[in-house]
Amino acid sequence: MKLLLLLSALWVSPIFSQSDWWQTGQFYQIYPRSFKDSNGDGIGDLNGIREKLPHLKDIGMTAAWLSPIYKSPMKDFGYDISDFKAIQPEYGTMADFEALLKRAKELGIKLIMDLVPNHTSDLHEWFQKSVNRVKGYEDFYIWHDGYPDPKNSSNRLPPNNWVSNF
Ligand SMILES: *[C@@H]1O[C@H](CO)[C@@H](O)[C@H](O)[C@H]1NC(C)=O
Ligand SMILES: *[C@@H]1O[C@H](CO)[C@@H](O)[C@H](O)[C@H]1NC(C)=O
């Protein structure tokens, strides 16, 4: 009987008492590029997001998840990050980001950053150092020559058969 009670306590607790804000919150994903343009350049930006935060509050959101806003050459619309510590200029400045964060805090809305750690842009400092074999950076990326293409001797095939699924 004791075991049974313990088990039921374990089952019940995550639902009724242990829930963290992220387990019960309402999330709104913002794609900054198209969400709200505040300066008329045709591209959404951080100030536009800040302007619309009260609306998210009104519709009951507790958190906003931002698709990547980091510095990027935009070959993959921001998922190709060239500097994880800088804001892409067309979205605004670090000061704009800090203002957005401040407003979100005032409204009690959590801001979730979209971190993409599994690859970088080829323009990222680490990639440039790694491709140029700067000491200490050689293994920051996986380097492989690829396999000979049996159908085309001047071509190389990717080193694995991994597919990208969305
Ligand atoms: C890297 O992570 C992102 C975000 O989870 C994912 O969409 C993408 O497919 C991943 N890319 C690779 C090459 O693993
Ligand atoms: C063979 O591969 C090379 C390098 O990728 C490419 O430039 C060329 O067009 C290919 N030839 C054919 C016939 O597909």
UniProtKB/TrEMBL annotation:
The keyword Oxidoreductase does not apply. Residues 29-165 form the Glycosyl hydrolase family 13 catalytic domain. It catalyses: Hydrolysis of terminal, non-reducing (1->4)-linked alpha-D-glucose residues with release of alpha-D-glucose. Residues 1-17 form the signal peptide. GO terms for biological process: carbohydrate metabolic process. GO terms for molecular function: alpha-1,4-glucosidase activity. Pfam families: Alpha-amylase. Its EC number is 3.2.1.20. Coiled coil: none annotated. The keyword Signal applies. Keywords: Signal. This is alpha-glucosidase. It comes from Hermetia illucens.
